Amino acid sequence: MEFVLERYNYWIIIVLMMGGLYIVFEAENMIKKLVGLGIFQTSVLFFYVTLGKTAGGTAPILVETGGHGDDHGDGHAAEAGHGAAAVAHGETHAAPVLHEESDVAHQLETVEAEISEGVTELAPNNVDGHASEAHGAQAHGAQAHGAEPGADPGHVANGADAHGAVSDLPSPEFIATPHAPSQAVADAVYGQSGEPLHMVAGDIIYSNPLPHVLMLTAIVVGVATLSVGLALVVRIREAYGTIEMDEVRAADIAEGEAEGDAA
Amino acid sequence: MEEQFVPSVLIANIALMSMLGVITIAIIRMTSLFGIVMLSGVYSLVSAAWFQAMDAVDVSFTEAAVGAGISTALYLGAMLLTVRKAKPTKGILKRWAPLLVVIGTGSALLYASVDLPAFGSLDSPVNTGVGMQYMEVSPKEVGTPNVVTAVLASYRGFDTFGETVVVFIAGVAVILLIGFGERALAASNWRGREDDDAQGDDSHLILRVVSKLLIPLIVLYAFYVHFHGEYSPGGGFQAGVIFAVAIMLYSLIFGLKAAMTAFPPVWARVGAAMGVAIYGLVGVICMLNGGRFLDYDYIFGPPSGEAHGHHNWPQITGIIGVEVGVVVAVACVMITAFYAFAGRTPEIRDEDW
Amino acid sequence: MTMLADLVIAPTVLAMHAPVLLVIAPLLVGAATVLAPSGRFAWYMAVATSAFCLWMGISLAMEVSQNGVVSYHMGGWAPPRGIEFRIDALNSLAVVIISFMGLMSAIYAQPAVEREIRIEKRPMFYTAYQTCLAGLLGIVLTGDAFNLFVFLEISSIATYVLVALGAGRDRRALTASFNYLILGTIGATFFVIGVGFLYAATGTLNMADMARIMEADSLHHSRVVQAGFGFIVVGLGLKAAMFPLHQWLPPAYAHAPSFVTVFLSSTATKAAFYALARFMFSVFDPTFSFLEPVFLYVLAPLAAIAMLACSFQAVFQTDVRRILAYSSVAQVGYMLLGLATGTAAGLTAGMFHMANHALMKGALFMAVGAAALNASVWKVSHFNGAAARAPLTFTGLAVAGFSLMGVPLTAGFLSKWKLLEATLAEGWWWAAVVIGISSFLALFYVGRIMQAAFFAKAEEGAPEIKEAPFVVLLPLWLLAGLNIVFGLNPSLPLGMAEAGARAVLGVDLNISGGAQ
Amino acid sequence: MVDLTSPEFWESVRMMVAAGVILLGALFVLVGSVGVLRFPDFYTRMHAASVTDTLGATLVLGGMMILAGWSINSFKLLMTWLFLFITSPAASNAAAHAALVAGLEPLLGKWNGEKVEKPELAKEG
Q1: N or C: which end of chain B has fewer CB within 10 A?
Q2: B278: pLDDT confidence band, cut at 50, 70 and 90?
Q3: Residue ranges per structural domain of chain A
Q4: Domain for residue C383, yes or no?
């Protein structure tokens, strides 16, 4: 059952894809063929976007002042738990607060790779941008302040703060909060003070932006092909008086035979 | 994995997907081209909603603008010049060849689906690979909140350049194939005359008033979508399409001739080339300043090396620059395509509907 | 020789950006060509860009042969995050072939275009040509799987319109183009699905990175990777006119404007074939367990069937261009047979034959187009006695025709010989038989054309064939001459093909190892 | 005992009001859809469809504005509503007019056994 639940989306997409492909091959009418082609291409978009969707994720626009993520609070609570389980770092389960934060399970490899090296592996001021590293430090209880020095104001103020705020997590107000992380998110998102420092980035999961970018390209390529195809259809209609594939083919064959006789 | 999804997302997923399935079946069974074209527009719109549910907001926006908007307009334009009805298809038994192809391809896909990562999984290769790195590094390296824009215009800016060229070459293709030579001129005269008649009896009065109100707003919105693309969904392609829609609306209501006077076809042709040139030249400027093609860090000269604070201006300038190229190219090509289809005298008049 | 080397090596500034200049020069000049005041001026621009591309291509190839892999990071972003143009010995050969054939066909274009394309369409026609050239070069240069798709589409859309412009002469060009558009788009979409599978399995789009991850995680057991291979091969195979997917090619070549046929026959399928080779050998490893049966039981038989069936079909065509088009599909079969061996020798033979085929098919289509410059002659019978009236054109045709048949002392003979060696090394004796039969059939179909031109008597009232102008004869004879030169001394193309095979199969594929 | 002064209480009231308004809007959309399916001819169907566009959309957007509170998002929603408010009737009018010009007669006129004058109806729309 779990197997089905994990894959039903692919199967639906395959059915849609094949529907489009079937129209392309089955239709004799050229415009209908192009419609089928469009459906086939759109279904491929579904496939890529499905790959990039993360459970409980939100659009890949870094949260600065709220707006996004507000209705995802509940989802995060669950995710966090799961993420922690996946991390399988025994010690993270000890403290509920850390537990919540560990939904960066997708960074698992990076975390593990970098734990030994501490927090500042990339550029010096990259710390705040690197949720996984900051998290790695915390999860091991090594030092909550390990991440602090990286949180320089300039960066927290710009888009980076979504992650940057991880370094804020161990601050007392959050640890003291008895609520589920959804409350923490809500606080941050609706932050009355409006200061960008109030980000709880660790709790925001983003969907993968790369498939989106690729599919934007694919959409545009699709419409370009479509306009060329339609222009051809218009010309074929003018030249043959029909846009039914079989009639055009019959006319072509007749023409070829006529030429063959002449030759 | 499943419990991680917000239920509303799953409900939307299933509901929209099944709508898409129903639409596909309807298209397979239909013969009225008008219906087919409309349903394909609906398909695009429903898929745009689905993309929204799947967090692909930029894809959703583009699909709505391009798939449901421009594509449908192009289909209708082509249909006006051809026929309204497809021939009824053959019996199911005679269609074994397409069925065979489809079953073959489908089983290959099903074969693969077994090993595909679970839907929504966070630790799939895709979501641990390159894609998610962008989420972390782009605030530092590019500095636009909308990571899709950053990836689109900077990391994979070269893809987008190629994409602009695809649009451009499609415009060239449409001009070469159905052009706006003398036939288009004749057509525009014909349309214009008819419109002059219509002006007499005020029958389009409401439309004229409303459209005069709307067109500036649409253009304004196009600019918003373009320049706000770094912060929210949107960007060059969507803005270009929206701008083209404004011209299309104008030409629908005031006649093709008026539109061609307001925005001459030659502008569209030159503009399409200009768009590609702008995009390319932004890249070339970076090259002249010592960087790689499209390396925006070099757009004002070699990078000074000092840490940029709030905004990474070279990157943002570069992104806006190339997006201008995209807007110009896309808008001009879409207008070109519209002119080309609308400007060709239809063989079938409205009476033959 | 050193003087020549000095001449072809570009100044440092240009050489540093050579990979990207190869693509953006034709694109930007192509965009500017839209504004060209006349067809003649547009032609100058097209020839100039093509020549520039050849220059860059050669200097890039020299760079690669001296310093190994060249990697150009678009936007300064290191792969896999950014897009990379990655040139090793395998694609430097493809780059040189495509840019060289681009220049040759661009020089050839002018008289043919003036005859076949309406005057107001000429500037844009050259725009489409240059865009197509840029797209094909992009396909062979890029190291990013999705970027390859973008370039595939650029070249394809340009190709559709170029083919469709034959409609001024023959309306069947429209149907041919539409069919190509449908099949080509399906092929490209299959390719995207395949890339999507690989992306799902590896999480990256960079081809070298994909190869590395698949190797490291031994992903060849994953069904996703296997299906991805299938979709990519089908998608690219459609573009390369691999045997059962070649239906679009004969009508497209037969009804396109003659310049377009020359250009496409010598470049488009070559670029797709290169991409196929790149994916089979470099992204996937031919030693992957699932690939061996695919190569042995699917690709090799398909190649053999193509060589036999399409040669056979070519024998029975009356239209000269269709004869040559079917022959092209058969020749793709030869190249594919080389790939299907899965060995370095086979890859070398395939790439070598690809280069030779570009030379000979380009020359043949040029000669046929040159004959048709003054009169619409497309039937074999129209060529009766033509050699007497246009000796230079038809001698060129004969030389290229001999090369196609595989007569000794021509390039075609050598590549078939290499192929024979490669297949026999695998113990595929049947392949030798197939090569023999196919060459025998080539003797028939090329021989028919030559027999008509050289030995038959001209019919009464047949269209008058005249000698072609100098701009047509120059590239034709250059290509024909190269067929002989490489037949006598194949060290240049063969050496490059061997270096290519070594580069993909011998050296490991770490991304960092570049001249960046 | 509900604490009327607590912000949580008013927050939940706001949510409930918003939900109610959105549901009401959805109901109108549903009614409109049923109308499109059930009404006999083009003009009456368009009438049903425009209910979806105007009342349904207004209520849904209004509910969302309540939900979003006093923010830029509310402003954007307001703009969306304004856009719909202008375009939807104009589009309905254009479609009806086009249908009339193309010669599609309203069923209503036949029903009463008397023809409706074309120009009149066009102005009404």
Answers
A1: C
A2: very high
A3: 2-53+208-262, 70-203
A4: yes
Closest residue in chain B to residue C125, using alpha carbons only: B176
Residue C1 lies in a domain: no
What is the distance between the alpha carbons of residues B296 and B291, in angstroms, rounded to a whole number? 8
A2-53+208-262 under CATH 1.10.287.3510, yes or no? yes
Cβ of residue A235 closer than 8 Å to a chain C Cβ:
yes
Residues of chain B with Cβ-Cβ distance to D97 below 8 Å are: 203-204
Closest CA of chain A from C350, distance in Å: 31
pLDDT top residue among B93 and A129? B93
Contacts of A41 in chain C (CB under 8 A): 185, 189
Which pLDDT score is estimated for A260?
A: 64
The pLDDT of B36-47, averaged and rounded, is 93
Average pLDDT (C51-73) is 90
Cβ-based neighbours of C192, under 8 Å, separated by 6 or more: A44, A218, C146, C149, C235
Tell me which residues of chain B have a C-beta less than 8 Å from any C-beta of chain D: 203-204, 206-207, 210-211, 213-214, 217, 350, 353
Q: Measured between beta carbons, which residues in chain A are less than 8 angstroms from residue B97?
A: 25
Q: Phi, psi (5° rounding) for residue A46? A: -60, -40
Identify all chain A residues contacting B131, using CB atoms and an 8 Å cutoff. Answer: 52, 208-211
Total structural domains within chain D: 1
Mutation target to probe the A interface, by most A beta carbons within 10 A, among D71, D76, D77 is D71
Per-residue pLDDT reduced to its tens digit, A27-58: 888 999 999 999 999 999 999 999 888 887 78
Indicate whether C400 belongs to any domain. Answer: yes
Say which residues have a Cβ less than 8 Å from residue C81's Cβ, sequence separation at least 6. B130, B133, B134, B137, B155
Residues of chain D numbered 36-95 and touching chain B (CB < 8 Å): 83, 86-87, 90, 93-94
Query: What pLDDT shows up at residue A224?
Result: 94
Sign of the Cα torsion A115, A119, A120, A123 reads positive
Helices assigned H by DSSP within chain A: 2-26, 30-52, 73-87, 96-101, 108-115, 131-139, 153-157, 161-164, 172-176, 181-189, 209-240, 245-262
Instruction: Tell me the nearest-neighbour CA distance from B217 into chain C, angstroms.
Output: 31
List of chains touching C (3+ CB pairs within 8 A): A, B
ipTM field: 0.90
C96, pLDDT greater than 50 = yes
Q: Are A220 and A41 in contact (CB under 8 A)?
A: no
CA–CA distance, B85 with B79 (Å, rounded to integer): 9
Q: Where in the sequence is the domain holding C341, given as residue range(s)?
A: 286-510
- Give chain B positions within 8 Å (CB) of D22: none
Q: Which of A19, C199, A33 is nearest to B106 (CA)?
A: A19
A114 pLDDT higher than 60: no
In chain D, what percentage of residues exceed pLDDT 90? Answer: 13
Q: Which residues of C touch A21 (CB under 8 A)?
A: 186
Residue C32 at interface with chain B, using a CB cutoff of 8 Å: yes
Q: Phi and psi for C66 in degrees, rounded to 5?
A: -85, -45
CB contact under 8 A, D86 and B350: no
Q: pLDDT for D9-49, tens place per residue?
A: 888 888 899 999 999 999 999 988 888 888 878 888 888 88
Containing structural domain, residue D77: 7-124
Contacts of D94 in chain B (CB under 8 A): 206-207
User: In the predicted model, what is the mean pLDDT of chain C?
Assistant: 88
Any A CB within 8 A of B196 CB? no
Q: Render pLDDT for C126-178 as a digit per residue (tens, 0 to 9).
A: 999 999 999 999 999 999 999 999 999 999 999 999 999 988 788 889 999 99
- Residue D93 is assigned to a structural domain of this protein: yes
Quick check: C154 and B133 CB within 8 A? no
